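pasting for ref. prot 1 ->
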Amino acid sequence: IYELEAPERLTGRTLKELDLRNRYGVNVLAIKRGESVIVNPKAGEEIRKGDVILVLGNEEKLQKIGS
């Protein structure tokens, strides 16, 4: 399980649009947004600037998301 600050290119898009599971083989477990945590976010949840995404996956694939 890793924490990843949402890269700019992901912001403004929903989890469904990003399709991180199929593109990178990672699962989004939660989104930290300020003082809130959205556990098991729905596909329609939009990633916002400053969000921290908790994902399950291997480090190599996570590096591809961040780049």
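and prot 2 ->
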Amino acid sequence: GEQWFRVVVNAGTRDKDLAWIRRHAEPYGLTVRERTDLAMLAVQGPEARAKVIEVLGLPALYALKPFVGGFFDANGSEYFVACTGYTGEDGFEIFASPGDAEPIWSALADAGRDDGLIPAGLAARDSLRLEAGMPLYGNELGRDVTPYDAGLGRTVKLDKAGDFVGRAALAERAAAAPARVLVGLVGRSRRIPR
């Protein structure tokens, strides 16, 4: 919007991220307020799109492209729905009021039960994101691991118009050989990689 933007951060880095945003907003006289009155539900897997559309009654989600989100009205409430996930599968994240979140969770669990939908924790998500090659800040990315070190240089647009925080440091790193290189490994057993 004209007066706000949405940032979804890693829960483990929330305080550090919020401080960084405030520090960079201050010179512009901007006030940063954190919105904490939303719950997020994540649904991943081959049937995620159909189940979310079924539960929310939003056929418009068929057209939502990966890594895009928007506001949608359904069942008398407004939701922010993003076609995102961290497993490599088709996935959706639904941001709703806490009062709406529990009924949506229950309806999704019911709708997916016959298709094998089960709740999964962060360890399951983490093993899937590793298999999909999706980096996590604090693991494969960090203040000392640039996108170039992680094989993600394609995500840095040094030729884009305008300046951005870190441009000079990233341009310097782009011109040099990476200090380290992130590689994928193939597991030889059924053990979950950690």
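Residues 98-112 form the longest helix (15 residues).
DSSP finds five helices and four strands in the chain.
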